Amino acid sequence: MSKPARALPAVNDTDIRLLRVFRTVVECGGFSAAEVELNISRAAISLHMADLEKRLGLRLCRRGRAGFLLTDDGRLAYEATLRLLAGLESFRSEINAAHGRLRGELNIGITDNLVTLPQMRVTNALRALKQAGPEVRVNIRMIPPNEVERGVLDGRLHVGVVPARRALPGLAGFPLYREESRLYCGRGHPLFDAPAGEVTRAAVEVADAIAPTRAQQPPEAADLQQALNTTATATDREGVAFLILTGCYVGFLPIHYARQWVERGAMRELLPDTHRYSLEFHAVTKKGAQPNLVLERFLDLLKAGEAGAVP
After folding, report:
1. Residue 130 in domain
2. What kind and span of H or E run contains 173?
3. Are residues 237 and 262 in the same domain?
4. In angstroms, what is the C-alpha Rg of the chain?
């Protein structure tokens, strides 16, 4: 005869704290990476996880030489944790809204390297939000576009800033920025000091080039990229910049991001009339999400800066 399942006691503040630690460990991919995020030692994290497993009566993860790995029960507990914590934040937001006060959290996910965009709509909206609600806690995560979208859909993030690619059924959005990218080489590259007449399409297309590994480019960019001699890849724009600055590769970068090196004479733009493309970024939120006064105010502030923001 099997032993009856043990009922979970009522969830208390200690459980909530342990679940927040658990969520962070999962999202960081292990105890070591979570140390910085949580600002506590690995030993303390291990004790918290052991307490949570004892409290839930479940083995949540395996850790050892093979690394950190969630068990099946752990995956189930993680998904339930996300729903619980999102529900708590929604409750707090609704109560704060009843008082008409801007209090609570704003969790934002942003694609990398947008801070150098001259329009600064996100920065300006955050400044205005802080002035209107000094008690609002803002949490920004710089993560890949697909993780931003997933975070908004599952409630971990209130709003995201991502490239406008495909329309996901559960997301609503509006345009924020349009950025232009061009092709660059670095100082020391054979094309860097070449006369303009020698920088031809043929010369560019035989040079070693960098391809991004994340699908966040418009179709016209893919056509330009395909014609290049790709011998290196990078997951993000910073990686592309690192490789361009070696003087060994050509690669596409947004002009707002490359400007700092162009002005210092460390990068040169190549074939600007033909090797260029634009990418639009949207602010996205979850359709049908519970009312949230902080989020609504932030979105209003973003939209208020709309005029002239997309050149």
Report:
1. yes
2. strand 171-186
3. yes
4. 24
Tell me if 253 is assigned to some domain.
yes
**Rounded Cα–Cα distance for residues 245 and 31 (Å):** 34
- Report helix, strand or coil for 246: coil
Q: Coil, strand, or helix at residue 117?
A: coil
Helix 72-99 to helix 293-304 angle, to the nearest 10 degrees?
80
Residues 109, 160, single domain; the answer is yes
Domain shared by 291 and 222, yes or no: no
* 253 in the same domain as 235: yes
- CA distance linking residue 59 with residue 114, whole number of Å: 40
Residue type at position 274 = T
148 part of a folded domain: yes
251 lies in which domain range? Answer: 178-279
Model confidence pLDDT, tens digit, residues 214-238: 656 777 888 899 999 999 999 888 9
Q: Quote the tokens at residue 4.
A: 């009856």
Render pLDDT for 24-82 as a digit per residue (tens, 0 to 9): 989 888 888 888 888 888 888 889 999 988 888 889 988 776 678 889 998 999 999 98
In eight-state DSSP terms, residue 28 is H
pTM score of the predicted model: 0.63
Residue 121: name the closest of 263, 299, 250, 242 by CA: 299
Q: Are residues 191 and 159 in the same domain?
A: no
Q: Which residues of 280-298 are buried (b: 16+ CB within 10 A; e: fewer)?
A: ebbbbbbeebeebbbbebb
Q: Which residues of 99-123 are buried (b: 16+ CB within 10 A; e: fewer)?
A: eeebbbbbbbbbbbbbeebebbbbe
